[in-house]
Amino acid sequence: MARASNPTVDPALDAAALLRRVGFFGLFVIVPVVAQVARRATVVLAPIAVILLILASAIDNRQRPLRPAAARLLTAPAFLAGMLVILWSALSLIWTPFPGPATERLLNLVATILLTLAGYLALPDRMRSANLYLLPLGVTAAAIVAIMIGLFGDTLMRGGTEEDNALDRGLTLLALLAWPAVAWLRSRHRDREALATGLVVAAALVVSPNSTQIVALAIGALAFALTSLRPGLGVAATACLSAALLALAPLLPFVARPIGAAVLGPVSPGVLSLKAWQKVVTTEPVRLVTGHGFETALRGRFVGLLPTNAPTTMLFEFWYELGIVGAFAAAFALYASIRRSGRDVPALVPGAMAAFATAFTIACVGVGLTVMWWLTTLAITILVFVSIERGQFRSRRPKVSLLRRVRDEKDA
Fold first, then answer.
1. According to the per-residue pLDDT averaged within each range, which of 142-156, 193-207, 341-355 is highest?
2. Rounded CA gap, 106 and 313, in Å?
3. Strands (E), 107-170
4. Mean pLDDT, all residues of the chain
5. What DSSP string runs through 216-285?
């Protein structure tokens, strides 16, 4: 006769599980889908989802022990270099021409970082597969929505600028979340589903009018393929190229401008933008050390501090605002974080390198240094990758022996 078990029901644990499920559903499904049609969806909905995860962990205490986890994080070389960037940004408030807006933007940046750290520390030590399978579901649903908007946008929505801006931001989030979704499916030996997810995301980017995301996704795919074939080479190439481009960014206009002039013509917008960058470097070489101060690149265009056609990329703005100290610290933080990513879970390394390459490409093509929706998008991607990494504690279901199966049948 089978023994009936009557486990004690704990309403607190049930509430925590519900909050966590809702939080992951919001982060993995609602945010990617709504981001395709609402331009502020990322900065509004993502913090709510993270707060739900924090509340769930505060109730059931299933996260990793906070003190060891925080100690490992706070002593990591990449984290220390990132903190140097933040401290130097705060110090640059002394000489920035816009202390008020710069202070507000820096506080928003610090708040985003603190919320991301809280979400990181609140993630469960072991993630349930049922929660993680929401990720490819949400990415696929968001890609289908983006395809519908790309094909029938004029019919589905009236207007132009705001909807186009929302779709551009949504596609950026989609291009980044595609890689953790693919990495999770491949880690569960679902290669066909991973390929289908990647293809539907690529289709969503192809039908959109903006080519930035599809170029970034293509470069991410190259990093993914290289790392899959040669893991060590893929990680080293991604880390070294990204850090070198950021550290040596002031040399880029001198190298790229002649090439661009020969290919596109001397009066093309891209070449003129490189010319403006080159002029900034040559006329104020001392500022390459200190930078012009936080928030100067964005607001300086409106008051004549720099040409209006100056680049709006991360490479230019890091050097223009924070100088060699901020740029070198950021380059080291980027290098150290890439080298460290996925070291404990080799199955996720190709997806991590692809996400790094995609994000870096988007930042280099034309996303500002401290745009809040972009920082929130990066925070979401980080939390998603940490989540799938903590879902790798068991790669396959345990096999039930024949003897145990017969014993269970007798007990029944």
1. 193-207
2. 18
3. none
4. 86
5. HHHHHHHHHHHHHH-HHHHHHHHHHHHHHHHHTGGGHHHHHHHHHHHHH-TTSHHHHHHHHHHHHHHH-T
